[in-house]
Amino acid sequence: MIVFLDVDGTYAHHGVVPQVHVQAVRDARARGHRVLLCTGRPMSMLSPALLAAGFDGVVASAGAYVEIDGCVLKDVRFPAQLAARTVQVLDEHDAAYVLEAPDRLLGPPGVRVRADRAFAALQADREPRAGRLDFLDALEARDDLSEASFGKVTVLVSRTPIVELGRAVGPGVATITSSIPGMGTSSGEIYLADIHKALGAQLAAEHLGHSRESAVAVGDGLNDVELLAWAGTGVAVDGAPPAVLAAADRVAPGPERGGIALLFGELGLVPR
């Protein structure tokens, strides 16, 4: 089988990977199964800790980037004019945002401070810092981002709902609200409208000689809907939004309960 694992809320809990998940991935690969991460994060936000189990490849940036065994199969960026228009709209609406590329994270001056303030307003016990804002440590702030190259945008803080920001940018982009509890409708992601995880997963599966029928996909967010519907076995994480549950064939516990390890055992990918 070939397995595609979402990261946040699926493989990792608040950015921290349970050891039972690490071992499950290693055991499944040792038995000849292919295991890949399939995440909304860009490669530049995948830390060594998240990759420590060892994977056959990564579908990143919600399908815009695919890398198998160190070989880049896909790296789709915003066209230059659309990228410049996106940055213009974000600046006009005084948004705190991160432009995500495989090799770097870019943002306007002050984005770290504004993001810290936003997360500080959330309950500390519900949103611990681990895995939450650490990626901002690698952020490169620039005064002029009009010529930046990126595949996706994360809006951390905005006075304008993310849906309205997308409309202001115009055709070619789509939006999704943040999955972090308490962040509201003014944070989320802006991405290319014709990109989603299933397209990246299909490319990776074909490259590795697998059909969609042999694919298992696990996820918990709205950007996983197409992925779960595409896979032969789509698995939603318990507590996922209704649209995610509706796209899935079965449900697994969350990472705080070692859900990936339990699922791998039930599917016969590892010994029970």
Low-confidence stretches: 123-131
The largest pleated sheet is described as: 8 strands, mixed
Mean pLDDT: 92
Radius of gyration: 18 Å
Class inferred from helices and paired strands: alpha/beta
Distance between the termini: 17 Å
β content, as a range? 15-25%
Quickly count the helices: 9
Shape: globular
Portion in helices = 25-40%
User: Total number of β-strand segments?
Assistant: 14
Describe the structure in your own words.
- The protein is an alpha/beta fold.
- Helices cover 29% and strands 23% of the residues.
- It has 9 helices and 14 strands.
- It has helices at 19-30, 48-51, 80-92, 111-120, 162-169, 197-207, 225-230, 242-247, 259-266, and strands at residues 2-5, 34-38, 57-60, 65-68, 71-75, 96-100, 105-107, 139-141, 152-157, 173-177, 188-192, 215-219, 233-237, 250-252.
- The strands form 2 sheets. An 8-stranded mixed beta sheet has the order 5-4-3-2-1-12-13-14. A 6-stranded mixed beta sheet has the order 8-7-6-9-11-10, sandwiched between helices.
- α4 (111-120) links the parallel β7 (105-107) and β8 (139-141).
- α1 (19-30) runs parallel beside α9 and α3 (80-92) crosses α5.
- The protein starts with a strand and ends in a 6-residue tail after the last helix.
- The model is unreliable at 123-131 (pLDDT under 50).
